[in-house]
Structure formats: structure tokens, C-alpha cells
Design goal:
Length: 396
């Protein structure tokens, strides 16, 4: 996937259309951008599911899903520091209802923005994706390349300070499933400040803070996040902390309760030849304020995955979570086999377990994956869920 450089300084993933690139410090100005840069992807996914009931077993057509996607994006340098970008995304089942009971067709203008750059400061205004690392409370995920949610607002990025990226943002609304939802039901929006520091060898420190003012009818809300990741010899280490609070009657996505939520997550990982391993531990209190603005999967490192049959941290119940990731990279570029396991011990209820065993590979330029996932959780809707997913995405 191409990422056109509308800016002569590569300031942050905030400025790029995809919104999923880690920030890069401006050591050397980039070469002059092309007049116009296009990118896109084509994807397909098929899933078999088992919900552990007599009507949701493997083989039932109603429990299978088939989805195809296409993404088309463009960035254009207009000169004098100005530029613009746009992205179209669409899902389709291609009429194949004979092999999948669930169908979905959707097309949207997922991004439309203008940019302006002067010195080491860049501004991006319009509908845009936000990256998880610097905006963990309000970030953009993708399904088969298509944005699940974007944000309407203005983002300012500055890199004047050495080894430091500073970000300020005002977000007016979010756009889940192509619907526009005002922050707190008003035009006051959400304010965010974030910073990333990379001045310590092999270390990245990220911080971000959010504030949603009260509009009179609905209460205020705020969140603070911080993380530090480093590498010592062959060991990768990370520490993450998150806090969120919302007044009763604040926006529905954050819950109507008044108890603040906080979580601490830490990981240690290593790689030896073709093998890699990572252990993540998380503690979360029993607060009911959600750790994601749109109510979906949080940016906590312990979250199993986004999407159906993923295992996500659920606010309102104190939890102790352990997640282990193992991987083996096959020789001669034949892909990677991986295993992820998770155990979640809530304060009230039974321990939940989950595992995912998969194989990632690339053939003819297509990034492909085959995965089996198992979740056993008697504290929620059903005691067991299974899923087999086959998918591929071609980026251009």
C-alpha cells in the first residue's frame, strides 16, 4: 500500500490517509512528493462459526459469513503546503447467499481531508483515521482494509522539539458504520493532547489525554493514557496505563455509570532465531467507564482481537488477564505459524479462556491467513464459541 508524502517532513501517522503508521521523526526531509499518489486493497473473507447451541453449530449456513472488500485512496499535493486526500471503502457479499446466511453490502466515503504544512507543523482537517499508538481512546480499526470508524475533526502535529512529536486535536464526531455521531450530542466535541518521545535508545514513550466538556444536558468525560516500550538486549518490554471517567448521562458509548475505570498492562517478549514469544499481564478495576470512545475493542495490549468471537476486556468487573503469544517463522518465506492464548479471571464469575491457532502467509502478493479460534466464557452469552476464518488481502 502506497503512502504519499504530502508533507516534506514525515511527522506522524496522523497525517497519512491510512492512519495506521507509527510516527517517524524528521531526521532528513523527504524527497518531493509525487503529484498524485493512489493506493488501495482488495480483500475476501469466509468464516465458519459455532456458538455452542443447537441453532448455532458448525455447518449451519446462517452462522457462516462471506465478505469481500475494496478500498481506493488518493492523495494530491496542491502546492504551497496544501494537499488533500480521500478514501472510498466498500463491502459486498457478491450475491453468494447460497453459501453464507449473513449478507452485507456497504459503501462509504471513509476519509476526506485537507492538509497544510509549514515548517515542522502540519494540520489535517476533515474525516480521517486516527492511529492507536497516539490516540488509544479514539482510534480507527480496519476490517479487510475498510475503516470501521473514522473521525471528523482537526489534528495539528508538530516536531520542532528533537525526538518529540506533539499532537493536538479537536474531534467533532465519529463515524461508525458510515453514521455520524456527535461527541456528547453537541458541537463542542472532544479535545485531545498527545506526545511521543523517542530520545532514549530503543525506547518509545507515548502519552495522551482527552476531555469532553459537558453540554448541560449531558455530563463531561475524560481519559488519560500512557505507555513506555523498550528493548534490552533481546528482550522487549512494555508498560501501559489507562484511565477513563464519565459523568452519569454522558455519551452512550461510554456507559451511564459514574465509576471510573483504570487498567495497567505490561508485557515481556523475545525472539530467538525463528521463534518469538510474548507474555502480557493486565489488571483492570471494576469501573464502568469504557476504555474506547466508540464502545468497541480497547487499545489495551491484553485485548485478544477486534471482531466477532474476539475476546475483549469488559468494563464493570474487576479482571486479571494473562495473554501468551507464540510464533514460528517458516524458512524460505513460507509464512508464520502462531498461537495466542488468554485467561481472564474476573472478580465475580468463572475464569474465561481463549486460544487462536493460525497460519499467515503471502502468495502472489496476497497477504493470507487461516485461523481457528476458541473462546470458553460462561460469564456472558454462551459458554463456548468457535470460529474458522480464511481471508486474503491484496494491497496496491
Amino acid at each position: 500500500m502506497k503512502k504519499g508524502l504530502l508533507l516534506s517532513v514525515v511527522a506522524s501517522g496522523f497525517i497519512f490517509a491510512g492512519g495506521d503508521i507509527a510516527p517517524v521523526q524528521p531526521v532528513v526531509p523527504a524527497a518531493a512528493p509525487a503529484a498524485c499518489d493512489f493506493w488501495g486493497s482488495i480483500g475476501a473473507r469466509y468464516e465458519f462459526k459455532d456458538g455452542d447451541t443447537s441453532t448455532t453449530e458448525f455447518g449451519d449456513k446462517a452462522n457462516n459469513t462471506w465478505k469481500t472488500s475494496i478500498v481506493l485512496g488518493v492523495e494530491k499535493d496542491l502546492g504551497y503546503g496544501f494537499g488533500f486526500g480521500a478514501e472510498l471503502g466498500a463491502y459486498s457479499h457478491l450475491g453468494l447467499t447460497d453459501i453464507a446466511g449473513q449478507t452485507q453490502n456497504r459503501a462509504e466515503l471513509s476519509q476526506l481531508y485537507v492538509t497544510y504544512k509549514v515548517g515542522n507543523t502540519a494540520v489535517k482537517a476533515g474525516r480521517q483515521a486516527l492511529p492507536k499508538n497516539l490516540s488509544p481512546w479514539a482510534w480507527s480499526s480496519r476490517t479487510l482494509g475498510v475503516l470501521d470508524n473514522a473521525y471528523n475533526g482537526v489534528v495539528v502535529v508538530n516536531t520542532d522539539i528533537a525526538n518529540t512529536t506533539l499532537v493536538g486535536a479537536w474531534i467533532a464526531s465519529l463515524t461508525p458504520q458510515n453514521n455520524t455521531v456527535k461527541i456528547n450530542g453537541s458541537d463542542e466535541g472532544l479535545f485531545m493532547l498527545a506526545a511521543e518521545y523517542t530520545g532514549i535508545a530503543n525506547t518509545t514513550i507515548d502519552t495522551s489525554a482527552y476531555y469532553i466538556p459537558s453540554n448541560g444536558a449531558q455530563g463531561k468525560a475524560y481519559s488519560v493514557w500512557a505507555s513506555a516500550e523498550t528493548k534490552v538486549s533481546n528482550i522487549n518490554l512494555g508498560l501501559q496505563a489507562a484511565y477513563a471517567d464519565a459523568d452519569a448521562g454522558s455519551i452512550a458509548q461510554l456507559g451511564a455509570g459514574t465509576d471510573s475505570s483504570y487498567a495497567i498492562s505490561a508485557y515481556a517478549g523475545t525472539k530467538f532465531d525463528a521463534f518469538d514469544a510474548k507474555l502480557t499481564l493486565t489488571y483492570m478495576n471494576d469501573g464502568d467507564a469504557k476504555l474506547n470512545l466508540d464502545g468497541g475493542t480497547s487499545a489495551l495490549w491484553s485485548d485478544f482481537s477486534a471482531g466477532a468471537l474476539g475476546y475483549e476486556v469488559v468494563p464493570g468487573n474487576k479482571q486479571e488477564i494473562a495473554k501468551l503469544d507464540l510464533g514460528y517463522t517458516l524458512p524460505s518465506n513460507y509464512g508464520k505459524v502462531y498461537l495466542s492464548t488468554i485467561a481472564d479471571k474476573p472478580d465475580h464469575g468463572k475464569t474465561a479462556y481463549g486460544a487462536a491457532l493460525g497460519y499467515k502467509f503471502k502468495v502472489a502478493g496476497v497477504n493470507s491467513k487461516v485461523e481457528y479460534r476458541y473462546i470458553k466464557n460462561k460469564n456472558f452469552t454462551s459458554s463456548k464459541n468457535q470460529r474458522i476464518r480464511i481471508e486474503g488481502t491484496y494491497k496496491f
